[in-house]
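Hi R.,

Here's the chain you asked about this morning:
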Amino acid sequence: MNIEKGYWSIVEPIWDAMNIYGGPEVFLATFRQVQRDAGLLYAAHFCQSELCNGGFNQFFFNSTGVLAPEALEAFEAIGQIQIANILAQAMASFGSTYLRDRQQRRAALDRLPADCFEELDERFFALIDNEAGGFDTAADGYAARVVDAAARKRLDH
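And here is the predicted structure, written out as C-alpha cells:
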C-alpha cells in the first residue's frame, strides 16, 4: 500500500465500501468487511470532519453519528486520547447505551439542552489541531505504523 497520501491512502480505497446511511446494522456489516485499521481511520476522519464543520450537534444529528463508537476507538488508537475522552463525554449524553439509530439520536437530541455540547465543542476545537501533533499528523503516523506492520507480516511469511 502506498502511504504517500498519508492516512488517506488507507481510507480512500474503502470509502465507497462503507455505508453510514443504511442504519446501524448496515454500517456495522460494512465496517466488518474492511480491514479494522482502515475502518477506524475512516471513522476518525468522518467524525473529525463533521465536528470541525458543525460540532457535536451536527455529528450526532447526521448519519455519521452511527460510527461514534468506532471513532472513539480510532482517536485512542491514533493517540488523540483527550479527543477520545471528549467524544466519550458527548456520547454519554445519550445515556449508558449509545444510540446508533439516527432517529433515536435525533429524538434524544431534542430532549437535550440547546447548549449541551457547547463546552465539549470548544474543547474539541482547541485540541484537534494540537493533540499528538494534530489530527492529520496523528492519523498519518497511525497509517504508517499499519503499513509497516503489514509489510513486516508479509516478510515473515
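One quick note: Residues 43 and 67 are 6 Å apart (CA to CA).

Cheers,
M.
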